[in-house]
C-alpha cells in the first residue's frame, strides 16, 4: 500500500476536505495505488455481472409466476363462467340484487377475486362492491363484445383498487349470455410481494457477493502488491544513495525469487557504483596532481618562450614564426591548465564565493569591450539590449561572473557565423538574467544539456580552429550553481543557440523563475 506521508496529501482527514480537494485526492490515490485500481475494477465488474444475472433471474421468475398464475386463473374462470351461465339462465328476475347473488355464489371462485357482470349497453354489477368499471380495460371490453367470430375469452393486465390502493391485476372476461359479460379481476398482490422479496434477496445477495469478491481480490492483490511496494521503497532508498538496503526473502515462491534477483542486482550495482566512484576519485586526483605538477615546468618554458618571442625579429623567418607559434600554443596550454585547476577545485568542493554588489550592465559591457577585437575579425556585431526597466544590481562574485559572461559571449561570437549576437538583460524582484543569442550553426535540442559537459563539442569532426579548452561552459555552469543560479541552453541546427544566465539578487538565494524567456527573444529596448 502507498502511504500519504510526506506527500502533502490528507490521510484519515479526507472526510473534512472540500469537494474539489477531495476529487484531487481521489485522483491522486487512483493514480498511485495499483491495489486500489484492481479492487475497484473487480468490484465494478462483479456488480455489473451480479446486476445482469439478477435482472435475468428476476425476469425468468416473474415470467414463470405470471404464466402459472395465468393458466390457473383461466381454468378457474372457465368453471366460474359455467356456474354464472347456469345461474343466469335459472333466474327469471335479474335485478342488481339478483346479479350480486349470482356473483357471490359462483363455484370455485378464487377467494381474492373481484367480479363484474355487465349488461350490454346497461349497468354493471360488482362483487365485492369496491371494484370499479374503470378497472377493466376498454380494449378487453371491445374484444369480449366482438361477436363476429363467436364468443371468446380475453385477458389483460391492469391495475385495480384494493383497500384504497392500486395493485397489479389480471383481468379475464367473456360473454356469459347473449345479454351479459362476465369479468374476473384477480389481484396479483401476493405475486408482487414475491417479486419484491426476490428483488431484495438478489440485491442483498449480489451486493454481498460483489463485496466478498472485492475482499478476496484485496487479499490476493495485497499478497502481490506488498512485496512490489516494498521493492519500490527499497529501490527509492537505493537511488537516494543508501546502497546497503536489501529486500527480505521469505519462502521460495515467485516473490521470493524476485527479492533474490533484486538483491543480487542491488549488490552488483553497489559494486559497480563503488568502482565508478573510486575511478572518479582517482581521475579527479590525477587531474589535480597533474595540473599542479605542470605549473613548474610550464613556468620555466614560459620564461624561455617569452625571451625567444621578445627577440624573434633577430631570427630567421622560420625561427621567428616558430617562436610565435610556441607563444600561441603556450597560451592555449596555460588556459587549459587554469581550467583544469578550476575544475579540480569544484570536484574537491574547495570553490569559495566572494560576492559583491555588481551592476550587471557594467559587467556585460566590459566583456563586450573585451570581445570587440574578436567580433571585428569575425564580422559580427554584438548588440546589447535591456528588457524592462528593472534595476540590474546583483550580489555576485566579480571574477566568476566575468568568467561566465566571457564564456557565453565569446562562444556566441566564435560560432555566430559572422551574424549579429544579441545580449539581453532583464530583472524582476527576485532575479537578474542575461540571455546571449547567436544566429550561427546552433545545435540539436537534445544536446541542450550536453553542451555543459566537459570537452563536449557539437560537431566532433570539426577542426579545432575555434573554441577554447572545451571546459569553459562546464566551469560557467559550476560558477552559476555556486551562486544559486541557473545556466540553461537552447538551440536548433542552422538557427543558432541561446544561453540564459539567471542569478538570484542575493547570492545563494532560491530561484523559482527567470525574468527572460529562453527560446524566443522578447521585445527589447536599446541599453
Describe the protein.
Helices cover 52% and strands 16% of the residues. It starts with 18 loop residues before the first helix and ends with a strand. The chain is α+β, with helices and mostly antiparallel strands and 527 residues long. Strands 11-12-10-9-7-13 form a 6-stranded mixed beta sheet. A 5-stranded antiparallel beta sheet has the order 2-1-5-4-3, with helices on both faces. It is elongated and about 165 Å long. Helix 8 packs parallel to helix 9.
List the helices and strands and how they pair.
Layout: H1 19-32, H2 34-90, H3 96-104, E1 114-119, E2 124-127, H4 138-145, E3 154-162, E4 165-175, E5 180-187, H5 189-239, H6 254-310, H7 317-347, E6 356-359, H8 360-378, E7 382-387, E8 393-396, H9 398-414, E9 421-427, E10 431-438, H10 472-482, E11 486-492, E12 496-504, E13 525-526
Parallel strand pairs: 7-9
Antiparallel strand pairs: 1-2, 1-5, 3-4, 4-5, 6-8, 7-13, 9-10, 10-12, 11-12
Number of beta strands: 13
| Average pLDDT over all residues | 78
Envelope shape = elongated
What is the chains' assembly state? single chain
Q: Structural class, from helix and strand content?
A: alpha+beta
From the N-terminal CA to the C-terminal CA, the straight-line distance is 59 Å
**Spatial strand order of the main sheet:** 11-12-10-9-7-13
Largest sheet descriptor:
6 strands, mixed
* Percent range of helical residues: 40-55%
Number of helices: 10
Pattern of helices and strands: HHHEEHEEEHHHEHEEHEEHEEE
Stretches where pLDDT is under 50 for at least 5 consecutive residues are 1-14, 461-466, 521-527
Instruction: Evaluate the radius of gyration.
Output: 48 Å
Strand content: 15-25%
Amino acid at each position: 500500500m502507498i502511504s500519504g506521508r510526506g506527500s502533502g496529501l490528507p490521510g484519515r482527514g479526507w472526510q473534512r476536505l472540500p469537494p474539489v480537494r477531495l476529487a484531487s485526492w481521489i485522483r491522486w490515490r487512483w493514480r498511485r495505488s495499483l491495489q486500489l485500481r484492481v479492487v475497484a475494477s473487480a468490484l465494478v465488474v462483479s456488480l455489473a455481472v451480479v446486476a445482469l444475472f439478477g435482472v435475468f433471474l428476476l425476469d425468468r421468475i416473474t415470467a414463470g409466476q405470471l404464466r402459472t398464475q395465468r393458466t390457473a386463473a383461466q381454468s378457474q374462470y372457465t368453471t366460474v363462467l359455467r356456474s354464472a351461465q347456469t345461474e343466469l339462465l335459472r333466474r327469471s328476475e335479474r335485478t342488481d340484487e339478483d346479479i350480486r347473488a349470482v356473483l357471490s355464489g359462483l363455484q370455485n371462485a378464487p377467494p381474492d377475486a373481484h367480479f363484474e357482470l355487465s349488461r350490454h349497453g346497461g349497468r354493471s354489477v360488482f362483487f365485492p362492491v369496491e371494484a370499479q368499471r374503470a378497472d377493466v380495460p376498454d380494449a378487453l371490453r371491445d374484444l369480449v363484445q366482438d361477436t363476429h367470430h363467436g364468443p371468446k375469452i380475453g385477458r389483460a393486465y391492469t391495475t385495480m383498487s384494493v383497500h384504497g390502493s392500486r395493485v397489479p391485476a389480471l383481468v379475464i372476461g367473456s360473454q356469459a349470455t347473449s345479454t351479459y359479460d362476465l369479468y374476473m379481476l384477480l389481484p396479483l398482490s401476493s405475486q408482487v410481494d414475491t417479486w419484491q422479496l426476490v428483488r431484495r434477496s438478489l440485491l442483498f445477495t449480489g451486493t454481498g457477493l460483489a463485496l466478498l469478491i472485492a475482499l478476496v481480490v484485496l487479499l490476493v492483490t495485497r499478497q502481490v502488491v506488498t512485496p512490489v511496494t516494498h521493492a519500490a521503497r527499497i529501490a527509492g532508498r537505493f537511488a537516494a544513495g543508501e546502497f546497503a538496503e536489501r529486500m527480505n526473502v521469505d519462502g521460495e515462491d515467485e516473490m521470493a525469487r524476485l527479492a533474490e534477483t533484486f538483491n543480487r542486482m542491488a549488490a552488483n550495482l553497489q559494486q559497480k557504483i563503488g568502482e565508478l566512484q573510486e575511478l572518479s576519485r582517482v581521475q579527479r586526483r590525477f587531474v589535480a596532481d597533474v595540473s599542479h605538477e605542470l605549473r613548474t615546468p610550464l613556468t620555466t618554458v614560459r620564461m624561455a618562450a617569452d625571451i625567444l618571442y621578445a627577440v624573434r625579429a633577430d631570427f630567421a623567418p622560420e625561427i621567428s614564426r616558430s617562436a610565435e607559434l610556441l607563444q600561441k600554443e603556450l597560451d592555449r596550454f596555460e588556459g587549459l591548465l587554469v581550467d583544469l585547476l578550476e575544475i579540480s577545485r569544484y570536484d574537491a568542493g574547495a570553490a569559495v564565493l566572494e560576492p559583491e554588489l555588481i551592476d550587471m550592465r557594467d559587467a556585460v559591457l566590459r566583456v563586450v569591450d573585451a570581445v570587440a577585437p574578436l567580433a571585428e575579425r569575425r564580422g559580427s556585431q554584438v548588440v546589447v539590449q535591456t528588457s524592462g526597466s528593472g534595476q540590474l544590481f546583483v550580489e555576485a562574485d566579480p571574477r566568476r561572473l566575468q568568467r561566465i559572461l566571457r564564456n557565453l559571449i565569446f562562444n556566441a561570437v566564435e560560432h555566430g557565423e559572422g551574424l549579429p549576437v544579441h545580449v539581453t538583460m532583464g530583472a524582476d524582484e527576485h532575479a537578474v538574467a542575461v540571455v546571449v543569442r547567436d544566429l550561427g550553426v546552433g545545435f540539436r535540442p537534445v544536446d541542450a544539456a550536453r553542451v555543459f559537459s566537459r570537452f563536449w563539442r557539437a560537431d566532433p569532426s570539426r577542426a579545432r580552429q575555434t573554441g577554447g579548452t572545451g571546459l569553459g561552459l562546464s566551469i560557467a555552469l559550476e560558477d552559476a550553481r555556486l551562486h544559486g543560479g541557473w545556466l540553461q541552453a537552447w538551440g536548433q541546427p542552422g538557427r543558432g543557440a541561446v544561453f540564459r544566465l539567471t542569478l538570484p539578487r542575493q547570492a545563494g538565494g532560491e530561484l523559482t523563475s527567470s525574468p527572460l524567456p529562453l527560446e524566443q527573444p522578447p521585445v527589447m529596448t536599446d541599453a
